[in-house]
Structures are given as C-alpha cells and as structure tokens.
Amino acid sequence: MSELERAFTGAVLSAVRREGIPGRLGKGDGTLYYTDGAGTRHADRCWCRIGDSESPSEVVVRCVTVPQTYNLPVIVAEREGTLTVIDIDAYRAYEWSNGQYVNVPGHWWTHGRYGSDPLYVTGLSFLPLAAHPSNPPDLTVTVEGCSYRYSSTWKQFPTTTSGSLSAYRPAATNVTHYVILALDRSDNSLDIIDGDDVIGGNRVLPDAATVLATAGMAAAHWPLAAIRLYNGQTRIMPRDIFMDLRLWGGEGGGGTSSVEDFLDLGDTPSSYSGQAGQILQVNATVDGLEFTDRIGTVTKRIKLPMDFTTDDGCVPAAYNGSAALAFSLDGDTKYVTVPVPPDWDQASDMTLCVLCLSQSNEAAGADFLWRTQIASYIEGDTVADAGQTPTVNKIFTAPDAIAADEVYLVEGTIDYDHGTYPIQAGGCISIQIAIDMTGEDGISNGPAHIISWWIEYQADRLGE
C-alpha cells in the first residue's frame, strides 16, 4: 500500500471513528455481496463505497441493521474494530427512493418454526415469478422460476433474465417510459411489451391508463411487472420495478384480468356469430371448448299401452300367463296415440320396437310382417287416414325358423323429418299396426301376439 493510499485509509478510519460517514452499499461494478477467497459468501457482510468523491473507497462492511440493497445510502462507523453499517442515511435515502420508506423494523436474525420470529420459508417457491434487478445490476431484469398450469398442461418456467431494455429508454429528459414484463404462457417465454411515455420528468410513478395506452397484451400473457426507464439510466434498480397488479386489473388485482372477453381466451371459440342458442362442450381432442346445439343424448322409451282401445280385430288378452295383444286374422289392427316426449332432441329418428311371437311354428321363408301407419298432429292439423309407413318385418330365412311361442324383436324406423308426415314437437304420435299374413315371401301361420311394444327416442342429456 502506498503512502497516499495509507493516508486516505487512515483518514477514512478517523472519520468513521467520529460516529460515521456516508456511504452507498455495493461496489462501482454493481457487486453487492461479499465472497471471501475461499468462495464463501458471508450473509452479514457486503461491499460499500465510502465517500462522495468520484473515487470512493470500496470496503467490506458488516451490514445487519439495514436491508442489503445496492446503492442504498447508509452511515458507516467503526464497531469493535470492524467497519459497520449503523443506519440508513435518512436524508439521502429519502431522495434516492423518491420519498418512499426503505428501512424495515428490527426483527430476529434467523427464522425457524420454534424461534422468536417463527417464519418458516424454504425454496424459491416463496417468490414465484418475482421480478428483481439482475446481479450485477444492468438494464435487464431477472424473473424467478415458477410451476404453473395453462391450457390443461403443467409447465415449468425457469429463472430467466430478460433481454436488455436499453432500446426503451426515452431520449427526452422530461419523460419516463414504461414497459410491461409478461409471461407468455403459450410458449413459456418472457415477453417485453412496450408501454407509453409519462410526462413529468425522470422517475414519474406509473399510471395504469397511461402505461398501458399502447400495450397489447395477448390472452396468454400473464403480467409480472412494469419497468420504469428514463434518460441516462444505466441500471434497473428495485425502485424501477412495480409489481402492483392493480395496474392491469382495477382495484381487484391482476392475474388474467387483461382478458375481458371470453372469446379472447386461448382455448375458446373465436366468434359468437351464428351461435345463438348454442351451448359449450369440450371438443373431441379434449384441449378446448366449442359451441354445439346439444351436449350428447341418451336413449329413452315411450311404453305403448296394452289395454283396451278402439281396435279392429286386435284383442287384449293374457297368453300363456303374459299380457298380450292377439292378432288372429290377416288385417287385425291396433290403434294407439301418445304424446311426443318433451325431452326429445328434435334432431333424430325414432324407432318402433315390437316384441312379439307366433302361436304356431314358422318355417324358413315365412314372412311375418306388421303393416304400420304413423302420423303426427298438432293444433290446427286435419286428421286423415294417412301417414308414413315404416317397415316392421321378420322373414324367417334358414336357419331363422322359429318354434311356436318363441319371442322375437322386430323394429322399424320412424322418420322424424319425413317430407309429408314429420314428427312434430309438442304434438302427438298416432300409430296403426296390423298383422299381414299374406306377404310375398310366404305366409306366416299366426295367430300373432304382441307381449310388449314401445318407441325409442334420443333425449338431450341436459334434460335428464
């Protein structure tokens, strides 16, 4: 050490012994924390620049009573032979922070579940997506990592340092410029979104409407912080980072508040056009929502009556211990009218199902045919002996010959949008069913019996 350096250090120590001199935490190159030659970082030590000249003395100080914040104005004094930060330099700190309070009340120096200050924190999860100055400080910002879920996918965002924000510094000295730092959840990247100028000189505080005047945050963006930039700035410090999410969401806070329209979400339809009366459902690829006119259907039944009605030859009677409708002669007919079910989906055909038997053996080639006529009526219609004629037929081709009293099911389709006789919601369904024992493919022996019959239809699941 030269005589001049020795004299300067002596002068510094002499001043410190007179109860402190001003300094600023951190070295001129931006290094704040002290690491010894063995690579050990000391939690109670940091670098400090002592003196207000252009060539301050950079020394290691003990710092446990104030926050270890780069460039923080402090008072340094000698304590038990060690240079120690004894307080914040209140006057210069007030100017440095734009009037914001920067000190913290005293508290226990360690945290534990059973200690005097029982705060227990572990891991970076305590500060997910927290934005802070890079180390050493420059015109970038570092954002802590976070695990999150977006569009049904878990993602891990690593601790990331932004690109340089130097291009966003304003040229004029009477304005402050802001940018928004946001997580783009669509590709798990860090985005810089340009904001706007605030008139009034360097370091003007942000205003939501002004800052976001030209900021176009997408639906996938999660705003993290507003960054303040001004003419001549060389470092981004804590005072330049604003993480008040009210900037993006009114008094209630942020999150996804930048999305005000359902259609702006990343996994929803892009337009309401032509979707009146539609409902939402998860799409077939299970990665988004889509509009649909229904949300699936379920098959239901209308049980048709087996009791006495005005019939032509058909006789309700028990047969071998089971309720039955007997059709003994060719042309015997049963007439039934039932309401159109209110939960029918109005978009699918119905099925007439007949569970029946022949009282005699039926050989291969016999044609067991039910002649049907079905019409639907609503108020104002004229009733006529006409309707659509679904085929309800059973041809006993080898080896399908059946024995007497063997039960079989025959079905016919009722065309819901038949060109002449469609099924009409809110109306009724009129059914005629007659036995035909003179079919072209052979003559069934009969007599025939219906032991149960019904109409199957599709109902919307929402109606269940």
State the share of residues found in helices, binned by percent: under 10%
What is the arithmetic mean of pLDDT?
Answer: 80
What percentage of the residues does DSSP assign to strands (E)?
35-45%
Number of strands: 27
The outline comes out as: rod-shaped
Structural class: mainly beta
What is the end-to-end distance?
91 Å
Total domain modules: 3
CATH topology (level 3) name of the largest domain: Jelly Rolls
CATH class of the largest domain: Mainly Beta
Count of helical regions = 4
Q: Provide the CATH architecture of the largest domain.
A: Sandwich
Task: Provide the CATH superfamily of the largest domain.
Answer: Galactose-binding domain-like
Q: State the major sheet.
A: 6 strands, antiparallel
The value of Rg in angstroms is 43 Å
- Low-confidence residue ranges: 120-125, 249-258
Written description of the protein model:
The protein is mainly β and 464 residues long. It folds into 3 domains: 3-96, no CATH class; 124-260, no CATH class; 298-463, Sandwich (Jelly Rolls), CATH 2.60.120. Helix content is 6%, strand content 38%. Strands 1, 2, 3, 4, 5 and 6 form a 6-stranded antiparallel sheet that branches. Strands 18, 19, 20, 22, 25 and 27 form a 6-stranded antiparallel sheet that branches. The protein has a 4-stranded antiparallel sheet with strand order 13-12-14-15, with no helix packed on it. The longest helix has 15 residues, at 3-17. The radius of gyration is 43 Å and the shape is rod-shaped.
